[in-house]
Amino acid sequence: MKRDNINYLAVGCFVLAMAAALLYGLYRVTGQSGKGDAYVTHFANVAGIKVGSVVTYEGFDVGNVAGIEPVLSDGRTRYRVALNMRKSVRIPEDSRAMIAAPGLLSAPLVEIREGASPTALAVGGEIKGVSGGNLMESVAQLAGQLSELTETTIRPMLAQIGKRVDSLGGSMEKNLPPALEDLRATMARLNATAGRVETLFNEENQKRWQSLLGNADEASASALKLSRELHSVTKEVNELVRDSRGVVSGTGRELESSLRRADSVLYQLESAGRHLNEFSRQIRENPSSLISSRPPAEASGDEK
User: Fold this and answer.
1) Each residue's pLDDT tens digit, 260-274
2) CA 195, chain centre distance (Å)
3) Residue among 131, 114, 55 nearest 87 (CA)
4) Which of 70, 74, 94, 113 could form a disulfide with 117 if both were Cys (CB 3.0 to 4.6 A apart)?
5) pTM higher than the cut 0.85
6) Average pLDDT for residues 69-96, to the nearest whole number?
7) Share of the chain above pLDDT 90, in %
8) How far apart are CA 84 and CA 54, in angstroms?
9) For 230, how many CA atoms within 13 A lie in the half-sphere containing its CB?
10) Residue 83: which H helix or E strand, with range?
11) What stretch of H or E contains 239?
């Protein structure tokens, strides 16, 4: 019996020690482990922030949120957030505080961005609060936009695509068999043509093609040689033509002189012919004139 009581006492002490350790851990986690320098900031929205939320300075854990209190400013409600800085840090006057979430599953915290002012903010002063990106709110907005896009654009587009696919399926079911038959016929013709081409380019015909190509090479060489010879002959003919032009030019001058002399001779022959014609006419008219001819008047004058 005494031993059972000792066991119960030991178990109870262990449970109390674990409870105390749990409470201390929760106290540490909630950030209420000690008092430090107090600062304040104001936000228009404190979604995700509560008493005990972590406060960081450029990502370094320096404290926690000590309290949140709504205040009325310029007809609008803002929230006064008290910051408990357990670790002493120098905060420039132009530093900014914002609500941020380090990760998708991380709890929001108050992040203080260091300013560039050389003057440090006094303890108890106000750090200017700015609106930061709320990851969960952004995700919610994105989800809403995606849902709206799905309803207004993607779903009608999918329905239209479904109609087009059904129409295309019916058209393919109707037109595909004839197309396949045409394709088979075309393949058969291609196979026959391939057989003819294979026959055309068999080993024996390849030898003939090679021989034909060799003859073509020789013919091309002969044609080139003939072209060169024709070029040489053309050159010689051109020279001969130039020489012939010189000869023809000299011969032409001699021929012109000969024609002039021949023209003079023809003129004299024509004159003689006229005289002969006149003489023959006179003989025909008076044949006796050959016997009883008189000398010219000049000759008869001399005799007197």
Assistant:
1) 777 777 777 777 777
2) 42
3) 55
4) 94
5) no
6) 90
7) 17
8) 10
9) 6
10) strand 76-85
11) helix 203-285
- Per-residue pLDDT band for 249 (boundaries 50, 70, 90) equals low
Q: Percent helix, strand, coil in the chain (nearest 5)?
A: 60, 15, 20
Going by C-alpha positions, the residue among 122, 64, 65, 124 that lies closest to residue 93 is: 122
For residues 113 and 95, the answer to whether their CB atoms sit within 8 Å is yes
**Cα–Cα nearest to 127, from 51, 63, 35:** 63
* Per-residue pLDDT tens digits for 102-117: 776 778 889 999 999 9
E strand or H helix at 97: strand 96-100
b/e map of 245-270 (b: 16 or more CB within 10 Å)?
Answer: eeeeeeeeeeeeeeeeeeeeeeeeee
Report the candidate in 71, 67, 196, 46 with the shortest Cα–Cα distance to residue 132.
46
Report the length, in residues, of the chain: 304
**Closest residue by Cα to residue 29 from 69, 61, 77:** 61
Q: Which two tokens stand for residue 235?
A: 């050159």
Give the distance from CA 77 to its chain's centroid: 56
Given a contact cutoff of 8 angstroms between Cβ atoms, the answer to whether 97 and 82 are in contact is no
Residue pLDDT, tens place only, 226-240: 878 888 878 877 787
Helices and strands in the chain: count of H runs, count of E runs: 5, 7
Q: How confident is the model at residue 295, as a pLDDT?
A: 53
Residue 291 has pLDDT above 60, yes or no: no
As a whole number of angstroms, the distance between CA 264 and CA 281 comes to 26
Two tokens, residue 289: 């004139």
Encode pLDDT of 158-175 as tens digits. 888 888 888 877 777 777
Give strand pairing partners of 56. 61, 111
- The answer, yes or no, to whether residue 146 has pLDDT greater than 90, is no
Nearest Cα neighbor of 85 from 67, 108, 101, 65 is: 65
State the DSSP code for 40: E
Structural contact between residues 136 and 106, judged by C-beta atoms closer than 8 angstroms? no
